[in-house]
Design goal:
Largest sheet of chain B: 5 strands, mixed
Number of helices of chain B: 14
CATH architecture of chain A: Orthogonal Bundle
Number of helices of chain A: 10
Number of domains of chain B: 2
Structural class of chain B: alpha/beta
Structural class of chain A: mainly alpha
CATH topology of chain A: MetI-like fold
Distance between the termini of chain B: 24 Å
CATH class of chain A: Mainly Alpha
Strand content of chain B: 15-25%
Shape of chain B: globular
Largest sheet of chain A: none
Number of domains of chain A: 1
Order of helices and strands of chain A: HHHHHHHHHH
Largest interface: A-B, 23 and 27 residues
Order of helices and strands of chain B: HHEHHEHEHEEEHEHEHEEHHHHH
Helix content of chain B: 40-55%
Radius of gyration of chain B: 21 Å
Shape of chain A: elongated
Strand order of the largest sheet of chain B: 7-6-8-5-9
Oligomer: heterodimer
Number of strands of chain B: 10
CATH architecture of the largest domain in chain B: 3-Layer(aba) Sandwich
Number of strands of chain A: 0
CATH topology of the largest domain in chain B: D-Maltodextrin-Binding Protein, domain 2
Chain lengths: ~250, ~325
């Protein structure tokens, strides 16, 4: 509850200022107008449609990028030689901001889900790869030796020993990537893609409806918060304190 | 060689298309409506397209047109080449730079042009800015909607005409929607903008320090409807139909500007009072080679183009 004091105070101050001095700007709106715009967009279903478009793109990108990141993370984590070969290309490609690929991706995919999913997948690939490979290479060597003694094949070793041992940290990687996926999806929509919450925000700004723009912004924050809360709960339920230690890369 | 092959292939496609049309004449006329996704930006310069869509001119000419708002004008060439939109409305500077970079875009029809008598909009300054003469811009920070954008090029031309070296002026990107706010906050000294923001700045006691539209002749294209050469060659009928529909829409707007504005309001959902306060730029369905050449000259003088474009191939006849 204490965490709510500051935001409520700030909103009350903004409302008071807007009512006292009036708003002489095309980019600001009073909190009460923002709330009204939010209620209206929720009531006529627009906000839910935009949310579905954004969340679907974010999740699909997360699944593809995270999946590929996990596969490569396994390779790099299990085979130091592969890690050494891939080190340079990974370190070269990783810093490229995913949105910098937008013009090229637009040529290849055109507007729509494919464009957005591709960019989100690129952004989600790296955290899963880096944290995943670190988690996998950090699996207790003795456990792997047990696997060898039991004469497990490589696939059985991955399935029965490596993945279960690395799972809590892989989940942390997945949770980080989920946060990235939403940010990138909304950014792609603001910059280019005529879909979802980001496009709605850009459209509201361009058509001088700042109240609606802020309403969508508040909603994006709520969606992000809800997804993170959901994943945190899942993490606690599934792994307990195991997921909270060694969470870094 | 590649170009020849592509042209030949496109020509073959067009010939096959024509043959198919001939064979299926009656049926085709009844059902075939060319689908066009049209990329536009949030400006009333696109009123011709809004009217043509809303008042049925596109449909009458056998076109099934959808409109997609694109946030940045400079993204339109990529959207055209990626076939996300088949026709788009780049500014001539964006289109010529895209072609200079290796794309092959062609003008289908005119969209909107400049009006030298427009002194309400342009480079605006706040009250007490101290900018009175063109030379006062030296060392000042001026907001432009995009570096290299149409209005930026126009302002540099205006400065050059007045004998001012534009390299001594600092340009920063400032979106239209924020122009009144940033000027008021004092973070820039002047800003290039248009209505309704120009109206806000005038109401604040600001003024137009550079009426940049006077720097070029009336009707200099500010936006053109463009497509890729491949698409234009493959769809010659649609290209003609598009231009005819736009010409009818322009005539409609001249006769009934209020109804035309109502149509525009359906695509640019501005608050009604704001929409009523904006005068759309002059619309024009025609663009001439000489008008595009004027752009090429302006941009070449500002070292924005590496090569001389082939003007005879730029506009689809």
């Amino acid at each position: 509850m204490k965490g709510l004091v500051l935001p409520i105070l700030l909103v009350a101050l903004a409302e008071g200022a807007a009512r006292t001095f009036g708003i002489a700007s095309d980019s600001l709106a009073a909190p009460s107008d923002i709330a009204a715009a939010l209620a209206e967009a929720l009531a006529d279903g627009r906000l839910l449609l935009w949310s579905a478009q954004t969340v679907a793109s974010a999740l699909a990108g997360l699944a593809i990028g995270g999946g590929l990141g996990l596969v490569l993370g396994l390779l790099v984590g299990l085979s130091p030689a592969t890690g050494r070969v891939l080190h340079l290309p990974i370190e070269f490609l990783r810093p490229i901001p995913s949105v910098a690929l937008l013009p090229v991706a637009l040529l290849g995919f055109g507007f729509g889900y494919r464009l957005e999913i591709a960019i989100v997948a690129f952004a989600c690939f790296w955290p899963v790869l880096i944290i995943g490979s670190a988690a996998i290479s950090g699996v207790e060597r003795r456990l792997l030796e047990v696997g060898r003694v039991l004469r497990f094949g490589p696939l059985a070793r991955i399935r029965k020993i490596v993945l279960p041992a690395a799972l809590p940290r892989l989940f942390v990687a997945f949770r980080l990537a989920a946060g990235v996926s939403l940010i990138v999806a909304v950014t792609v929509e603001i910059a280019l893609n005529p879909l979802g919450l980001g496009y709605a925000m850009m459209y509201a700004q361009e058509t001088l409806r700042p109240a609606l723009m802020f309403a969508v912004l508040v909603w994006v924050g709520l969606v992000g918060w809800a997804i993170n809360a959901l994943l945190l709960t899942a993490q606690r339920r599934l792994f307990g304190p195991a997921a909270l230690v060694n969470a870094g890369p | 060689m590649v170009e020849m092959l592509m042209t030949r292939r496109a020509g073959l496609r067009a010939a096959l298309g024509a043959a198919a049309c001939g064979a299926l004449a009656g049926r085709a006329r009844a059902q075939a409506r060319t689908k066009i996704n049209l990329g536009y930006t949030a400006t009333l310069g696109f009123t011709g397209a809004f009217v043509a869509k809303d008042r049925g001119m596109f449909a009458k000419h056998g076109l099934d047109v959808e409109l997609t708002l694109i946030a940045l004008n400079s993204n339109i060439p990529a959207a055209l080449v990626g076939n996300s939109v088949q026709v788009g409305g780049p500014t001539p500077s964006v289109m010529l730079q895209a072609n200079d970079g290796g794309l092959d875009l062609v003008v289908v029809a005119g969209c909107s042009g400049t009006d030298p008598t427009n002194t309400r909009e342009g480079v605006m300054v706040g009250k007490g800015s101290g900018i009175k003469e063109p030379s006062d811009f030296v060392g000042k920070k001026v907001g432009v909607p995009g570096l290299g954008a149409f209005l930026h090029v126009l302002f540099r031309k205006w400065l050059t005409d007045k004998g001012v070296d534009y390299t001594k002026v600092n340009f920063v990107e400032t979106p239209f929607t924020q122009s009144a706010d940033v000027l008021r906050s004092g973070s820039i000294d002047a800003v290039i903008t248009g209505d309704p923001f120009a109206g806000r700045i005038l109401a604040d006691g600001g003024s137009v320090a550079a009426p940049i539209y006077a720097a070029v002749p009336a009707g200099t294209p500010s936006i053109v409807y463009a497509t890729t050469r491949d698409w234009a060659l493959a769809n010659p009928g649609a290209v003609k139909a598009f231009k005819a529909a736009i010409a009818e829409a322009v005539a409609f707007q001249e006769k009934d500007p209020v109804a035309a504005r109502d149509s525009a309001g359906k695509f640019i959902k501005l608050p009604p009072d704001v929409l009523a306060a904006i005068t759309p730029p002059p619309l024009q369905a025609e663009v001439t080679e000489a008008q595009m050449q004027a752009w090429v000259d302006m941009m070449s003088a500002q070292k924005m183009l590496q090569e001389k474009p082939d003007m005879s191939r730029l506009i689809i006849k």
